Amino acid sequence: MGFTGRRGKAEIIEAFSKHVSPYKAKFFSMVGIDFVPARREGVWYWDLDGRKLMDCHCNGGVFNLGHRHPEIVKTLVEALDELDIGNHHLISEQRARLAEKLAELMPGDISRTVFGVGGGEAIDFAIKLARGHTGRKKIVYAKGGYHGHTGFALAAGDEKYRKPFEPLAPGFVEVPFGDAEAVEKAVDDDTAAVLFETIPATLGMPLPPEDFYRRVREICDEKGCLMIMDEVQTGLGRTGKMWGIEHYKVVPDVIVTAKGLSGGVYPISATCFKEGLDDFMAENPFIHVSTFGGAELGCVVAEKVLEITSRESFLENVRKTGEALSEILGKLKDEYDFVDEIRQKGLFIGIKMVEEGWGPLLSISCYHSGILAVYANNDTSVMQFLPPLIVGEKEVDYIREKLAGAMEIASQRREMVEFIRKML
């Protein structure tokens, strides 16, 4: 017996509602989505009824290589013959190899890594690192940004996520994204770090001014604080370069990666940083531990992910496909008056529309047209569009047809925008 289809769709939805989340079940019911994933392969998802969607959500980058990439699956299966999670206290060959590979691929002199399981945990450690190294407390971050739902990461997130759980950790100060003057005013002698997503996905993928990160680097150097870049969604080739920050020609002190590092099959994250920033750990090397962080099975998978995503042919495909989609999206923008702007670096794409609520409407329209994509939760005028990085000409043709169909559906349902805004 397989692992999907053991129950009917209605029975699964009922059990999910009863034992997992009645609120999510109600939300999907309200928007007319009853998709329950079954088979998944490459760029495709099939539900229990055989309905097929191209995955252009990719869980924010988890499925950068598509679903069940043959090289990744083969690596994990072979590793299971020899390895397990490992012991997080002991020296590990697999963690050493992966950290070495990360150091090789990082910009500048970033050469050290601490592993975690998810992006929030990795951001938490980056903030621990900044406070531990500098002895300072303040963290400057972007208003409307998103770094996860764990302790410090949540404190550096949007108010809608923080408010129900206050009081959170003190010392966090928000500034408008892309505003170097605001950063300069906020950073003082008690600032431990400045933390940004290179391009904030949940905020709707606004592209920073070209000189923004150069100025942030200068401010951090002047004040003696760390520059932390959250590359959970922009890293691993998504923008056409290995790391999104490479487009802006600066080297931060810390880079955080997760999601896609898993290959879609084994959760793992990494906080990568310059040598010497962990000096405070000399007194107690076990002051930060993670039972499942850097699990040896996950390390082997992640090493294969890095091997694939760092291939020049792989990155060239991202750039080439990004150019093809840019042309398609530009034409759709000209054709539909509700499309305001296309925000894009490689295959990291935000479709910005004229007002809040259009993002969810276009996402629902994509679903009915054969594409899975989601809206930006902190700016619902934007739909995120993150196709797998393995897409080629055939998939681009599919996107051209289905995205045009989704635009037409959305244009015929304009009256839903007000209802969506009230619902959200």
Describe the structure.
The chain is an alpha/beta fold and 424 residues long. The protein has 2 domains: 31-61 and 312-423, Alpha-Beta Complex (Aspartate Aminotransferase, domain 1), CATH 3.90.1150; 70-309, Type I PLP-dependent aspartate aminotransferase-like (Major domain) (Aspartate Aminotransferase, domain 2, 3-Layer(aba) Sandwich). The protein is 39% helix and 17% strand. It has 14 helices and 14 strands. The protein has helices at residues 9-19, 22-30, 70-80, 93-105, 119-134, 151-155, 159-162, 180-186, 212-223, 296-309, 312-335, 358-369, 393-411, 416-423; strands at residues 37-41, 44-47, 52-55, 110-116, 138-142, 172-175, 191-197, 226-230, 254-257, 269-274, 339-345, 348-353, 371-372, 382-385. A 7-stranded mixed sheet has the order 4-10-9-8-7-5-6, with helices on both faces. It has a 4-stranded mixed sheet with strand order 1-2-3-13. α11 packs parallel to α13. It starts with 8 loop residues before the first helix and ends with a helix. InterPro entries: Aminotrans_3, Aminotrans_3_PPA_site, Class-III_PLP-dep_AT, PyrdxlP-dep_Trfase, PyrdxlP-dep_Trfase_major, PyrdxlP-dep_Trfase_small. Keywords: Aminotransferase, Pyridoxal phosphate, Transferase. Belongs to the class-III pyridoxal-phosphate-dependent aminotransferase family. Its cofactor is pyridoxal 5'-phosphate. GO terms for molecular function: identical protein binding; pyridoxal phosphate binding; transaminase activity.
